[in-house]
Give the backbone structure.
Amino acid sequence: MSNLLDRRIFLSGMGSGIALSTVGLTLGGVFNNPALASNISPYKTLVLLELKGGNDGLNTVIPFMDKEYYSLRPTLAVKKERVIQLSDSLGFNPAFKSLLPLWKKKELAIVLGVGYPEPNLSHFRGIDIWNTASDAQQFLETGWISRLFGESYPGSSFPCDAINLGYNLLGPFDGGKTRTITLGNNPNNLLKQASRLVPNTNSVDNPALMHIVKQRTDVKSAAKKIIENRIDNIPNTGVFNTTKLGDQFETMSRLMLAGVRVPVIKLSIGKFDTHAEQEPLHTQLLKDVGDNIASFAKLMNGKGLWDDILVMTYSEFGRRPKENISGGTDHGTSAPHFFMGGRVRGGFYGKQPTLDVLEDGNLPYFQHYRKLYATVAREWWGLRAPFIREKAIGIIV
């Protein structure tokens, strides 16, 4: 097959629309599978939530007993009495209060000190490392999900491999032959874009091009099946924030309630690059993340789907411990990340970095970021992942 057919094809340019990471996408007929419409999903879905820009871990999971925290952050530190205490020394930012019920139910795992050796503090290279599961000095072109699915796969009855909401960048789905549909914040965008794809097959005499045209037709058909026959029959839940992230959670929830099951759904929220006047913006971002996750968990639990869902956060890096003169924080290294779901064994995992022993002014790491991926691959899906050397964390019941 031509190399052209092994590369992703963007059907909508940079706007919201359809993105295929391979042209081998055939969705017709799969949505008629009665199993997909079951209230109890036979499949396991991973929800990836990217915190774009580099989340400040120290003001998310707060070491409220560490005097150095308050010394390094005279204006940004969250006062001890405002911290939502989770242990004798760590607690949530008050903006995360909506996640406390998940913590108490032991459905939220916090992995502390996540990072990697020789950390790269560039946004572009940092997220590229996370997306490809590479080492700091290793340059790969294929996303870690695409690499994983290229070696083993969690099931054969899925309509597609991944749905990408929000930003159009494929990230972990890039390269390989992962069948990805990018919906943007609104599933109707897919239908609008697909409706413009009216191929004239009579004028196509190139077999490779004919194959591409056929896949475009398949996407158009699939869009109608998803939206007209499924999504339009599911009313808005009305439980999510009226924000871009809330819209993504709304779309994802309606897809799931409509019986559309895929192995991975990716959401994104930006503006975490808080170099100046961090406090009000970071508080707003954390509240948006926490509120939407909490609403999603409650909704899915009520529909009997929460045990089949695993939510995982990630970000290209953390922030430096010391606040800057602009009332913000600069690019840093390690940070905590979260797993949530009905089958998560909640609690703390790893080790919280101490603030009196820094490395060039940054936090050391204690959990390699690929342990998150090992946990997803081996514990959640039961897949082989030979390119991931690290062990799983042990958080799935």
The domain at 3-380 is CATH 3.40.720 (Alkaline Phosphatase, subunit A). Residues 1-42, 194-201 have pLDDT under 50 and may be disordered.
